[in-house]
Amino acid sequence: MKMLINVPERVVADALRGLAAAHPDLLTVDVERRIVVRRDAPVAGKVALLSGGGSGHEPLHAGFVGPGMLDAACPGEVFTSPVPDQMVRAAAAVDSGEGVLFVVKNYTGDVLNFTMAAELAEDEGVQVSTVVLRDDVAVSEDGESAGRRGTGGTLFVEKIAGAAAEEGAPLVRVASVARRVAESTRSFGVALSACSTPARGAPTFDLPPGELELGIGIHGEPGRERRPMMTSGEIADAAVAAVVEDLRPDSPVLLLVNGMGATPLLELYGFAAEVHRVLAERRVAVARTLVGNYVTSLDMAGCSVTLCQADEELLRLWDAPVRTAALRRGR
Amino acid sequence: MKMLINVPERVVADALRGLAAAHPDLLTVDVERRIVVRRDAPVAGKVALLSGGGSGHEPLHAGFVGPGMLDAACPGEVFTSPVPDQMVRAAAAVDSGEGVLFVVKNYTGDVLNFTMAAELAEDEGVQVSTVVLRDDVAVSEDGESAGRRGTGGTLFVEKIAGAAAEEGAPLVRVASVARRVAESTRSFGVALSACSTPARGAPTFDLPPGELELGIGIHGEPGRERRPMMTSGEIADAAVAAVVEDLRPDSPVLLLVNGMGATPLLELYGFAAEVHRVLAERRVAVARTLVGNYVTSLDMAGCSVTLCQADEELLRLWDAPVRTAALRRGR
């Protein structure tokens, strides 16, 4: 698999150098320590939001650092958790005294390291609250596994809780908004191809021509079911069914039609039309739609559908201004 | 090649349905006639900008329709020019009486059809001015070919001339700004893989493992030179050399580090770091940087570099607010 890289070992550092060069007005990047911080941090009187996780899901999380969303992101190696030291340093850099919310995707390494970091940061006097994303309905919650993975729903939590923090809400309130979003959000992903990590240089699993994988995660892991290739409409039927039957929304939803990285926007918008069709058939009203590559899996072809059941407050916070590398609205 | 589509014949119509569903606040979409129009068009007292071209380059052009950029986009079939009838109808829909600027990429079919459309629109009383993009330095200007292709530079023209129109500049002035941008902009593209069109379902040319193509266009056509695989740094050396030696900028530039569609953002930001390194070595100052998939070639892996030498006025117009599906800033 050909890649636009120098050497696999430097992929994350190179990307952080590029991020620093492209967004000097917005970000302060510590390439060596792997910390991306909102340029004007710490913002006086404001609760800070901090997230992180393995690299390879860009623009998540560093592309969401800026006014109205995250204050800091801690990227790990590709598909590898960042370490507690990164998180503690980042928390200290963005804490204004109002505390820090950790936004964590539910993977064993991430949860472990963020938990440790929260303890260390609190030892240093930083008040920490944590929200864990478990939006992927493809993973069963039978108690045998580590539970549902955090995927596309992370964007909704970071945007909406970020807006609450920007408005000056205290930590307990920002955390409560974040948890409300997390509890109201579900995702389902589909892969048409496996992704290739720089270190491996080859697809992480074998997906033959003419087959797709339903219930895919964002780390190159296989999904829950392999099927002969389906049309865009059939994929929308399956993905929306999985999400809606779990979430059972009874009010308008925010919709994210997300690309896994290598699916052209032309196809993704066509898929968005099918998702809207299925939601209409199921009498689920859509309040807002976002289409694009936001929570990706390197060069994987495929898509995911995320729904967030939003009440009026969450909708207002979703619509609030945001200024990050990957998501901008208003001001 | 697996694709997220229903049937190849419906790819463009499906994408337009999705665009309409996702952006009801921003766009009016005539799916049957393939016309995407800014929702509040015609805007009284404002010159309108209209562009179009083959589909497969998304978000170009429809993703750039909205306040501060285009008033209308006319998508053709994949890699196929739109027809004059689309353009004439779109021009009539967006003309407020102040005239319409056609933004055209230099391909034989596009130029022919936009020229015919300009005549027809003028017969109907719409004043039309045209700017043609020829930014791709990979094509020689020896007089034998149709001349240089329009590629990534289109984004700069649409954004900057769109801002001038939004400020109320008359048609002659908007056209003059657009031509100034076009003349000050150069691009160079590199493919790591060929793209596959929905109709063909297979790569448009053969690019073996271990080789890349320098000087690639955005329509799946081969480039000007095939080479053994290069590092990100070596690709930046080659691409920036081609652009800078043609443009010879003597003041700060706007930089677009563009993905061709399937290259992960992680790699694209790493490449942006190398482009910044090469520009610094060549003593070219960078005023602004945009990194992302903006002028694509379906599922092609690769990238392009576009530089626009911007004076203070062009820089101010680049920074002006814009609200489109794919590019937002301010307000």
UniProtKB/TrEMBL annotation, chains A, B:
Xref: PROSITE patterns: DHAK
A Gene Ontology molecular function term of the record: glycerone kinase activity
Pfam family name, one: Dak1
Signal peptide: none
Annotated ranges, domain DhaK: 7-327
Keywords: Kinase, Transferase
Protein name according to UniProt: Dihydroxyacetone kinase, N-terminal domain
